[in-house]
Amino acid sequence: MLLAAPDVPALDLPLARAALEDLAAGCDVVLGAAHDARPYILAVPRPDPELLAVVERSLDGGILGAFAERGVTLGMLRHERRLASAGDVRALAIDPLAPADLAALLRRRSHEPPRR
């Protein structure tokens, strides 16, 4: 089961594939965190209510402790930037790790007058 946030533009097929490969390699949970420390992608091998309860508790910031207390193997994906504000857009546009085509598009769009 793979859950993904809709507000992370760099989320792509290779990243989803990496999450699924981590599951296949034996991870109990695979997580990618955005710059705001909230997950943008979460993968588990199957819907397990007990495991999902641990995941939910961990989202408040105690992720490593919550998983360690249950003996959960955690796979971590690369950091991504969530686009929730104009500041996030500006930051992604100048981020050297952002996909070049996306950064160029964001820079172009930031110079356009607002639409009415």
Overview of this structure, please?
- There is one protein chain.
- The protein is 43% helix and 14% strand.
- By secondary structure, it is α+β, with helices and mostly antiparallel strands.
- Strands 1-3-2-4 form a four-stranded mixed β-sheet, with helices on one face.
- The longest helix is centred in the N-terminal third of the chain and has 12 residues, at 13-24.
- The N and C termini lie far apart (40 Å).
Low-confidence stretches: none
Quickly count the helices: 5
Rounded radius of gyration (Å)? 16 Å
Task: Report the strand count.
Answer: 4
Spatially, the strands of the biggest sheet line up as 1-3-2-4
> Can you write the helix and strand succession as a string?
EHEEHHEHH
Structural class based on helices, strands and sheet pairing: alpha+beta
* Percent range of helical residues: 40-55%
Give the termini separation. Answer: 40 Å
Query: Main beta sheet, described?
Result: 4 strands, mixed
Approximate shape:
elongated
Kindly report the average pLDDT value: 77
Task: Sum this structure up briefly.
43% of the residues lie in helices and 14% in strands.
Write the layout of secondary structure elements.
Elements: E1 2-4, H1 13-24, E2 29-33, E3 39-43, H2 49-58, H3 63-70, E4 74-76, H4 86-94, H5 100-110
Parallel strand pairs: 2-4
Antiparallel strand pairs: 1-3, 2-3
Helix pairs in contact: 2-3, 4-5
